[in-house]
Amino acid sequence: EAWGDALADPAYDPSADNLVDMSSVERFEVTPLGARRLADVMQMCARAPAPGVRPKVACVAPSDDAFTVLRFYEMYRELQGSQSRHFVCRTVEEARCWLGLPKVERV
Asked: What is the number of H-type helices and E-type strands within the chain?
C-alpha cells in the first residue's frame, strides 16, 4: 500500500533509484504468489522512466523468507521486461554499493 501511494504521488520520479530496506521487518507473510501479483500490479501501474533510463531497485532482505520471496519478485519483474533493474541482497552495505552510493561509516 505504501509503495502504491509513492507511485501515485505526482512528485515521484520513476527514473530515481530506490533502496527498500526490510531489515526491521519482524514477520514476512508474503508468498511467492503474492510477489507475482505485486509484480503484475507494478507492471500495470508503474510510470515509465525517461527513454534510455533504467532505474535500480535494491531490496535488503536479511531473513531467509523475505530474501526468497523477493528473489521471486526480482525474477518476475525481469521476465516481464521491467525497465527497472532489481537486486536482492542481505545487507544495506551491499545495496548501497550496487546503487553506487557512498559507504556509511558506523560509529
From this structure: 4, 3
Structural element, H or E, at residue 58: strand 56-60
Pairing of strands 56-60, 18-21: parallel
Closest by CA position to 61, among listed 79, 36, 34, 86: 86
Q: Which residues of the chain have pLDDT under 70?
A: 1-4, 107
Neighbours of 48 (CB within 10 A): 10
In whole angstroms, give the CA distance from residue 82 to residue 105: 33
Please tell me what DSSP assigns to residue 106. Answer: P
Question: What's the pTM value of the predicted model, to 2 decimals?
Answer: 0.84
